[in-house]
Amino acid sequence: MEVTLAIWAISIGAIVALVAIDFFTVSRHPHDVSFREAVLWSIFYIVVAIAFGITVWLWQGSTLGTQFFAAYLVEKSLSVDNLFVFVIILGQFAVPSVLHQRVLLFGVMLALIFRAVFIAIGAAALAYFSFTFVIFGGFLIWTGVQLARHRNDDPEPKENLVVRITRRWFAVAPNFDGTKIFTRIDGKRMVTPLLLVMIAIGSTDLLFALDSIPATFGVTTEPYLVFMANAAALLGLRALYFVLRGLLDRLVYLSIGLAIILIFIGVKLVLTFAHEMNTSIPKIETGLSLAVIAGVLIAVTVASWWKVRRDPSARAHAGTVTEPRRPEPESEE
């Protein structure tokens, strides 16, 4: 796929324009986002993604068009797991609801920057070192297995290393001060908890990118499509949060569904490398990938609905890929 610098410039300019519109209009005045507002913005970003996919389909053909839609679906499904963690972070830091929009917008901007760097590194690695397919595939399989093992656990954002370092080096104010990240108390300059929340969200999304970027490369090796699929999913992430925040704890099987998707894409990457080495070994085509990913998401949603209907007390968890820290038992005297 030949993408000129002009096309890259126009695409990045469009993304920056969308973020700017959000920042200077919708998020400029902190407020509680209504369900209707969130749905309208979510639909808008989905329509933008579909329109871009159709453009790619007409411009480059059905193969690359299908690859974009598969990549977008992968990123969109994995971004729902991000939302679980966002809910946990905003809850643990007791962020006022009127500030949720500004915090999430910052997280989206930071995520776009991080992922652009990861995509560039991943594309270069795949171009010059084909065994990267196996490395990415193995990592995704490991991540999927770990997520399945710890599907009933939640991460601890306050234990985030970057957050702990920030607390060590800066005095943190006890309360929020609107949208300010710095404030003065008794003449002393301090950072507000809002900065800690933004750091927690940004650094957490950095970890999510470690599995989402290889997963997207699993359905398309075109850096342009990988970047645009990431951007399309991330731009709609903030609106999706306000749409789903009351429903997230009902998706009780989401973690196991995402684990299956990650393992499937990991196997696909390994088979892609094997096919390059020996064409008699079959590889998984993009159309099948799209069908499997969509099928898993539909099955997870239906199964979760059925589970919650039978057991209203059932609650979903974000899941983790590492063993969560358990509280140490109190010693008996």
Question: Describe it for me?
Answer:
The structure is a single chain. This protein has one domain (7-310). With 333 residues, it is mostly helical. The chain has helices at residues 5-26, 35-60, 62-92, 100-128, 132-149, 161-169, 193-217, 223-235, 237-244, 254-277, 286-310; strands at 182-185, 188-191. Mean pLDDT is 82; it is low at 329-333. Helix 2 crosses helix 9 (237-244), helix 3 (62-92) runs parallel beside helix 11 (286-310) and helix 6 packs antiparallel against helix 7 (193-217).
Query: How many DSSP E strands?
Result: 2
Number of individual domains: 1
Low-confidence stretches: 329-333
Distance between the termini: 69 Å
- Portion in beta strands: under 5%
What percentage of residues falls in helices of 4 or more residues?
55-70%
Order of helices and strands: HHHHHHEEHHHHH
| Number of alpha- plus pi-helical segments | 11
